[in-house]
Amino acid sequence: MKKVYTIGRYFRKKFGFDVYKVPLSIAGFTCPNIDGTVAKGGCTFCLNESFSPNLAEKTARKFYLHPDNPENPLLQKQLEQVRWQYEATRARLHGKYGVEHFLAYFQSFTNTYAPLETLKALYEEALRRPGCIGLSIGTRSDSVSDEILDYLADLSKSHEIWVEYGIQSVYDETLEKINRGHDSANVETWIRKTREKGLKVCGHVIFGLPGETEEMMLETVRSSIEWGIDAIKIHPLYVVKNTALAADYLKGRFTPIDEATYIRLLVESVKMLPRNIAIQRVTAGINDDTLLAPEWCRCKHTQMKHIRQALKEAGYLY
Predict the structure, then answer these.
(1) pLDDT at 132 over 60
(2) The domain at 2-317 falls in which architecture?
(3) Which of 119, 127, 124, 139 is nearest to 70 (CA)?
């Protein structure tokens, strides 16, 4: 039985101890695909104010960061959010699992889409937190720069630094359908640049995107491997209310991927991964009234039970 090379096993092999991520959601961050810089409305599966009138009303007067605007009246509030979110999750994880080492995970929206001085202040505040050995930064390939990567490369000399890019698909026709705002060449360029700087890269891939065949989904995994990723997150596309995708689903123009197909493709993906590429996520879902479909994405526990069984049958221990 082969052990799946999970991110937990990567950390234990590298450091000799467990490392957990502490997710951070910082006010003021947005996305160039939401604010109109590269597109309008965000990706079709993304819940944001463009598709939610109530949310739009609440956020109409909010300040949003932009790389070209050095102003940031939210900085002190953001620093406070880093502190209390990190401390609350650290205490919970330590109490539950006894873990003492963490990565601060800048998760929501595009976490390099801000002036460099703001990024430095937030990242370094996180690195000062007790037990924090590094950062994992969720972003888009069209929202980084050589200057940002050089700064992160300098941090990586003494910390564990990961950059997480949303690849989603390597097919431009798919990226256009989901209103991604950039092409696959852009993703490849910045993944390769990031790796050349000595930084770790995690690529996010979605199975079940509109119009994609099973072979297309597997080709996205193959290409991501060729581009040099160090880890991968794979999850199914699910439909939530107040999104463009929801409108297509309700009109019968989109059919979500079924669980059996998803798990079969996931197992095939695990088989093709080299031993040096870690898996950070094998599924996703949401269990609240915003989920429209597929229903199987509602219960993470059941998903994981089925995934572990399928991997076991294929000779893998997750």
Answers:
(1) yes
(2) Alpha-Beta Barrel (3.20)
(3) 119
